[in-house]
Specification:
By secondary structure, this protein is α+β, with helices and mostly antiparallel strands. It is built from 14 helices and 22 strands. Helix content is about 30%, strand content about 25%. The chain has two domains: about 230 residues, Enolpyruvate transferase domain (UDP-n-acetylglucosamine1-carboxyvinyl-transferase, Chain, Alpha-beta prism); about 220 residues, UDP-n-acetylglucosamine1-carboxyvinyl-transferase, Chain. Helix 9 runs parallel beside helix 11, helix 11 packs parallel to helix 12 and helix 11 packs parallel to helix 13. The protein has a four-stranded mixed beta sheet.
């Protein structure tokens, strides 16, 4: 498979099963989640922040464009010839300007929800809206806590979906228990809390990824994280009397969710071995690694840095895998990796069961339905559950028929997962439609895959 530009323009790709092994060392683009937050918090800092290895995904470029529209000076630096290095001239907490037009948040739920928290704290009017997929993602989960803080936000269909019209300013602190574990909801409230009067306290029954906390601590902002006896986490954010945010220099580590496709490729492709270097391995991001090890995957993690985030190199070797029941407590730490896990489970020996993952219904697509639809099409024995799926895996799975057509449903992680499935599937000839969405998170994906299979 190569990145045929004509086929890419037609929004589809033909994948045939790979008949050779590979041994490779690769890197993947900067982490999306940290890239979003670095641009946001650098824009709110008092002074110049330098961010290198920023993700150039469509979602992250939308974050850069959003803060430029809010009056922040963000420039490419091209240090050492890299287009991924940026200088952000921070405007300070109260230096953003009222936008003259709608802010486009593209396909990014992270940008939409976190930006809403920031805009809620600013005394001006703004409207944010995304693409046709984003504008059907639920937003009441942030509108309700922001409303408790005093923000006035109106959304489509009785405050359910974007576009969101925000009348910001005059926020007060709250205590809020997040109903469903969500780093996006937590971070939205934390960012709004920077502008609120008093200290805001957020309780999570299950602790979620803590990139916002880590960056705020790097900026010298008073954030306290406690672990209650009942579990979860209790986060306290001081409000507007706590002072401003310090500028920072940061190199964004590689995105674990992007690396996950190649970890899967390495353990599924017979005789292969792959090392992915400089990957973000925050404890709340690597649930997939733990689940793969339970399945028998031959994986090795070497830690190379710990501040402000834990970074490491991951080696993955071809492995004979067995099906498992995914522990419910692992679900929040791998919510973006279930599409590729479903592919891995398809080639494992025995049943893999996933439950407690109802959040997959409201991602970029209904990922449970998308996974079941596509895997059934290539002959996988899979059953749809309300909050997950069951897969009876087969290490000798073969493609049935001459050509099988799969659909990404506009979801970048579904598209990339099905491409990996096609490469592993014996005698495969699969067409995946709707592949342009891959630019949402990983525009370098085809080049990386081609570098492996064309060695």
């Amino acid at each position: 498979m190569t990145k045929d530009l004509l086929e890419f323009k037609r929004d589809k790709v033909l994948v045939e099963g790979l008949l050779k092994e590979f041994n490779a060392v690769i890197e993947v683009p900067g982490d999306k989640s940290i890239s979003h937050r670095a641009v946001m918090l650098g824009s709110l800092a008092d002074g110049k922040s330098y961010v290198s290895n920023l993700s150039l995904s469509r979602d992250n470029l939308a974050t850069v464009a959003a803060f430029r529209k809010l009056g922040v000076d963000i420039k490419k630096q091209n240090l050492n010839g890299s287009p991924k290095d940026f200088l952000i001239e921070g405007a300070g907490l109260y230096g953003l300007k009222e936008p003259e037009s709608i802010i486009n948040t593209a396909n990014s739920g992270t940008l939409t929800r976190l930006l809403a928290g920031i805009l809620a704290g600013n005394d001006f009017f703004s409207v944010i809206s995304g693409d046709k997929y984003l504008n059907f993602r639920p937003m009441r989960r942030i509108i309700e806590p922001l409303g408790l803080m005093g923000a006035k936000i109106a959304g489509r269909d009785k405050n359910t979906y974007p576009p969101l019209a925000i009348f910001g300013g005059g926020l007060k602190s709250i205590f809020y228990e997040v109903p469903v574990p969500s780093a996006q909801v937590k971070s939205c409230i934390m960012l709004a809390a920077l502008f609120a009067e008093g200290g805001t306290v957020i309780y999570e029954k299950k602790a979620t990824r803590d990139h916002t906390e880590n960056l705020l601590k790097l900026q010298g902002y008073p954030v306290r994280v406690e672990i209650p006896s009942a579990g979860g986490s209790l986060i306290t954010v001081k409000g507007r009397d706590a002072g401003g945010l310090n500028p920072f220099n940061i190199k964004i580590p590689g995105d674990f969710s992007s690396a996950a496709f190649f970890i899967a490729f390495g353990i599924l492709n017979k005789g292969s071995e792959i090392t992915i270097k400089n990957i973000l391995v925050n404890e709340k991001r690597i649930g997939l690694l733990k689940v793969l090890e339970m399945m028998g995957a031959d994986l090795n993690l070497t830690i190379t840095d710990t501040v402000p985030e834990t970074v490491g190199d991951i080696k993955a070797k071809y492995s004979a895998l067995k099906g498992i029941t995914v522990p419910p407590e692992a679900v929040p730490d791998m919510i973006d990796e279930f599409p590729i896990l479903s592919v891995v489970a398809s080639f494992a020996d025995g049943k893999t069961t996933v439950t407690g993952a109802k959040e997959l219904r409201v991602k970029e697509s209904d990922r449970i339905k998308a996974i079941v639809y596509n895997l059934k099409a290539i002959g996988v024995d899979i059953k749809e559950l309300e909050d997950g799926f069951e897969i009876n895996g087969d290490p000798d799975l073969k493609n049935v028929g001459n050509l099988t057509v799969l659909n990404s449903f506009g979801d970048h992680r579904i598209a990339m997962s099905m491409i990996i499935a096609g490469l592993i599937l014996k005698n495969a000839k699969i067409e995946i439609r709707g592949i342009r969405c891959i630019n949402t998170s990983f525009p370098e994906f085809f080049d990386t895959v081609s570098g492996l299979i064309n060695r």
